[in-house]
Amino acid sequence: MGLDTVELVMDIEEAFDISIPDERASRMMTVGDVYEFILERTTDATLSSNRCITAGAFYELRRHCRSIGFPILDFRPRSKIDSVVPLIGRRFYWDVLASRMDVRFPSLARPSWLTLLICTLAAGVAFSVFGLYAKPNVAIGIAYSVILGVAIMAILVLLTKPFAIYPPSTCSTVRDLVTNIVAINYHTLAKRYSTRSPTDIWNALQLIVAEQLGVDRSKVVPTARFVQDLGAD
C-alpha cells in the first residue's frame, strides 16, 4: 500500500467515521469496492434516506451567510464564491461560517504565483546550501540543503498565510463549496440531519478520491482502479 493510498484511507475514515482494516483495504482495487464498504459500515436504521444531506448543508450555509449580512438574493448553488464571500476579509468570514456551522471547511489557497515563488525561494536556498557544503562532504551538503530548504518553506508558508484567500480549484461555486463541506464532514452532517443518502455518500467519496489523488472528478467512477486508472502509488 503506497503513501497515496494510506492518506486516502485516512481521509475516508475521518470523513465517514469508520475504520478500514488493513487486510480489507489491500483488497479494495476500485472506487466501487470502497463505496460498497462505506455503505456496509454506515448502515443505520435510525437514519432516513428520504432527505438530502447536500440540500440540508446548503440551507444551513445560506442561513449563516444571511446572519452575517451576505446578500441572499445572490446566494444560489450556481453562484460564484467570489460573488458571495467578499475577497476582503474572506479568511475571517470563512472561519466564522465554519465555526457557526460547526464543520470543517476546505482550506483556502494562496495565489498560484505566490505558491510558485515560495517553492522557487526554498529550492534556491537548498541548492545554495548544497553547493556550499557539498565540496567537503556530499552527504552533509544533502542533509543541510534538505533541512534548510524545508525550514525556509515552512517559514514562508507561515508568513504568507494571510494571502491564502482563494477557494481551491474544486470549489468555485456555492454548489462546489457545499459538496466539499459534505465530503469532509459526512458523518457529522448525517447525524445532524438524521439522514443517510447513498448518493451523498458517493459524491463525498468521489470528491475525496479526486482531491487526494489529484485527478479530475469525472475519472472517479465505480470501476476506476486506484493504481492503474487513477495513478495511486
Question: Could you describe the 3D structure shown?
Answer:
- By secondary structure, the chain is mainly α.
- The chain has three domains: 1-43 and 197-233, no CATH class; 53-108 and 168-195; 112-163, no CATH class.
- It is 60% helix and 0% strand.
- Helix 4 packs across helix 9.
- The mean pLDDT is 88.
What's the total helix number?
Answer: 11
Dominant shape = flat
How many strands, which pairing sense, and closed or not: the largest β-sheet?
none
Portion of residues in beta strands equals under 5%
The Cα radius of gyration reads 21 Å
N-to-C order of helices and strands: HHHHHHHHHHH
Average pLDDT for all residues: 88
Cα separation of the termini: 8 Å
Count of separate structural domains: 3
Q: Find the structural class using helix and strand composition.
A: mainly alpha
Summarize the topology.
Blueprint: H1 3-16, H2 22-25, H3 31-41, H4 53-67, H5 81-84, H6 90-101, H7 112-133, H8 138-159, H9 174-184, H10 186-193, H11 198-213
Helix pairs in contact: 1-11, 3-11, 4-9, 7-8, 9-11
Question: Could you provide a short overview of the structure?
Answer:
The protein has 233 residues and is mainly α.
